[in-house]
Amino acid sequence: MDPHVSDPSAPLKGGPSKKTEKKLAKEARHQVISFVFMIFLTSVAFLTVASDTIPNRFAIPFILLIAVVQVLMQLYYFMHLNDRGNGWNNIMLWTGIFVAVMTVPTLMLLIGVIKF
Amino acid sequence: MSQAYAKKSVLWDWLTTVDHKKIGILYLAAGGFFFALGGLEAMLMRIQLMFPELGFVSEQTFNELLTMHGTTMIFLAAMPLLFGFMNYIVPLQIGARDVAFPFLNSLGFWLFLAGGILLNLSWFLGGAPDAGWTAYTPLSSAYSGTGIDYYVLGLQISGAGTLIAGINFLVTIINMRAPGMSMMRMPLFTWSSFVASALILFAFPALTIGLLLLMLERLFGATYFAVDMGGNVVIWQHLFWIFGHPEVYILILPAFGIFSEVLATFSKKRLFGYSAMVFATLIIGFLGFMVWAHHMFTVGIGPVANAIFAVATMAIAVPTGIKIFNWLFTMWGGRIQFTTANLFAIGFIPSFVMGGVTGVMLATSAANYQFHDTYFVVAHFHYVIIGGVVLGLFAGAFYWWPRMFGYKLNETLGKWFFWLFLFGFHLTFFVQHFVGLMGMPRRVASYLPGQGLDGLNLISSVGAFFMAVAFLLFVWNVIVSVKNKAEADPWDGRTLEWGIPSPTPEYNFAQTPLVRELDALWYEKMHGNGKLKAAEPLDDIHMPNGSILPVIMSIGLFIASFGLIYHVHPVTIIGLLITFGCMFVRSIKEDHGYHIHKEDIQKEEGAG
């Protein structure tokens, strides 16, 4: 029997299977691509502010939008939220976001930070 | 790993315990103490209001009494008492040996106690907080004495403890359920504790931020709420109620859970509409967040906002109504046993419905302009809090007392207690609706004679005495019943907590149980041999070591608070160093816990 069944701290023997190797390679590729993409998004955000031709009216919602994209990529590509066993993390996270999305703008409207 | 756990003195054992059952009892003891304290404050206020223009306490003292009554009852009595039951019962109901983080569990309790003691020390050190339990700015930021500093720091510390406890229960219920215990097989008390813990997780940060802003304003000269400096006083109200409204449901949902357990057990039927109950609990939890502004209809947030929040508030009546009907249907056709616990559960239904009806009246924003800040509001929330939470706590106490302490409370005394309490409660608060409609404002130290308020106020105060006598009867009952030793399953229970020997062994379940149905123990009684099936072979059980660190950490924050209140910064730094030092020790010191050996378990189980 594999020693890990009785003792999870036993040292590992042998290499990973072909399937695992393929999966790891795919994951590494995903991480590199998303890393590059995130640097691209950050630079776009930077340029949006730095450039005088883009008005604030557009820049602020635009930066917020790409920030949301980045956060989602962080959560799913780097923190592996879509892996198995993360169901509850997802539920709690999205419930929290849902509550915050309802509460924070309402609060800002009510105390007059933003007006409609 | 260390071998047998060396027995220390009893006091040391309770100070260092990380056992969820002992922490549950600690919560109950501390919560019970604060409950008595809050009740005493209420009695003093009711004596003052017995006759017009009475000078029993001064106006300042009255303000302090009223602030501390609300704060104590919500934060230091109702919530810890519910935490007491949750701590003791939830792990047993899901077939777990402990909560997910035993050390944090202990830390949560000691933080709550440190905050509670800090708050109450203000009585002796220059005056208690006097700005109402809601501590509205600018009253609390610009015009109050040091009492409010105690309020801010005491609540901040005990709030941190509550947040820790809430997260602990979420993780426990998600990760530590016994094999076969799917989410939809969890007893309703566990479900409602789960939803309440989620509410704590999402709501308490708003309180933390609000208190932080108030602390910065009072202690460090910030101007978030100072209108002349460009601040906005309404920010506090919003932050407070974004926390404060879910808080109401943090209190009532576990009480609903207790009623669901009690009514099903004493009707000898499974809970009617189990899945509807679960979804109603979730919906109530969610809507609890979306309605906070109904506390501020008259602040001037505008007719559109008022209308939206009015409708959202009334919507809560729908899932609550679903629950009420399910409880009635649970009783319908059941073999109802009128034990004291069940009397409390049955008495709850009409009492709470009356509170719910006045809730819908208050949610009508146009009518709210008439009700606002009168005794009508006082009557309403006492109807839901006492008629819901307090009756739930007493139902839970009578129901689970044999499980927790190994003896049964006297039923005759219990019934006297129930009828006196219920009668006193309705006598006190029913008339307050009319006092309010006649225009008596809340939070006033007195009233003038000849306005039609005299008689009703006297009746109300007399009712309060009934409740006080009833509570003393309960305390008496706790003392005299010690001899009534109870068997392990005195009520013919349905859920896992009744399937283990009494007194509960420190490892709870010798073998993790296998859950085959909702109401697991009842299923085994009907379809098996009446014993829980085991999901694992009998083996050594790993247990966590006790730790004194939570106590020291809480004392550190306690000391730091005094430094902040009196602006003695070295004291603040010393206090924080103690706390961070404990965190450092906890981080680097390896602690593997210990094992209870198979042979010892066999011996104990054989004997028990």
Automatic annotation (TrEMBL), chain A:
Family statement drawn from the similarity comment of this UniProt entry: Belongs to the cytochrome c oxidase bacterial subunit 4 family.
Principal location: membrane
Cited Pfam families: COX4_pro
Protein's UniProt name: Cytochrome-c oxidase
Keyword flag Membrane: yes
GO MF term set: cytochrome bo3 ubiquinol oxidase activity; proton transmembrane transporter activity
Keyword Nucleotide-binding annotated: no
GO CC terms in record: cytochrome o ubiquinol oxidase complex; plasma membrane
Alphabetic keyword roster: Cell membrane, Membrane, Transmembrane, Transmembrane helix
Region (Disordered): 1-21
Transmembrane portions of the chain: 32-51, 58-79, 91-114
An annotated GO BP: electron transport coupled proton transport
Cellular localization per UniProt: Cell membrane
InterPro entries: Cyt_c_oxidase_su4_prok, Cytochrome_c_oxidase_bac_sub4
Mode of membrane association: Multi-pass membrane protein
Automatic annotation (TrEMBL), chain B:
First-listed, main subcellular location of the protein, grouped into a coarse class: membrane
Alphabetized Pfam families for the sequence: COX1
Subcellular compartments: Cell membrane
InterPro entries listed in its UniProt record: Cyt_c_oxase-like_su1_dom, Cyt_c_oxase-like_su1_sf, Cyt_C_Oxase_1, Cyt_c_Oxase_su1_BS, Cyt_c_oxidase_su1_bac
Swiss-Prot/TrEMBL catalytic activity: 4 Fe(II)-[cytochrome c] + O2 + 8 H(+)(in) = 4 Fe(III)-[cytochrome c] + 2 H2O + 4 H(+)(out)
EC category: translocase
EC number: 7.1.1.9
GO terms assigned for molecular function: cytochrome-c oxidase activity; heme binding; metal ion binding
Recorded topology in the membrane: Multi-pass membrane protein
Gene3D superfamilies reported for this sequence: 1.10.287.70, Cytochrome c oxidase-like, subunit I domain (1.20.210.10)
The entry's keywords: Cell membrane, Copper, Electron transport, Heme, Iron, Membrane, Metal-binding, Respiratory chain, Translocase, Transmembrane, Transmembrane helix, Transport
Cellular component aspect of the GO annotation: plasma membrane
Domain of life: Bacteria
Biological process according to GO: electron transport coupled proton transport; oxidative phosphorylation; respiratory electron transport chain
Cytochrome oxidase subunit I profile domain residues: 6-516
Pathway the protein takes part in: Energy metabolism; oxidative phosphorylation
Transmembrane stretches, start-end: 25-45, 65-90, 102-125, 150-176, 188-215, 235-259, 271-292, 304-329, 341-363, 375-401, 413-435, 455-476, 548-565, 571-588
Family that this chain belongs to: Belongs to the heme-copper respiratory oxidase family.
Described function: Cytochrome c oxidase is the component of the respiratory chain that catalyzes the reduction of oxygen to water. Subunits 1-3 form the functional core of the enzyme complex. CO I is the catalytic subunit of the enzyme. Electrons originating in cytochrome c are transferred via the copper A center of subunit 2 and heme A of subunit 1 to the bimetallic center formed by heme A3 and copper B.
PANTHER family noted in UniProt: CYTOCHROME C OXIDASE SUBUNIT 1
Protein name per Swiss-Prot or TrEMBL: Cytochrome c oxidase subunit 1
Native organism: Alteribacter lacisalsi
Lineage: Bacteria, Bacillati, Bacillota, Bacilli, Bacillales
Gene that encodes it: ctaD
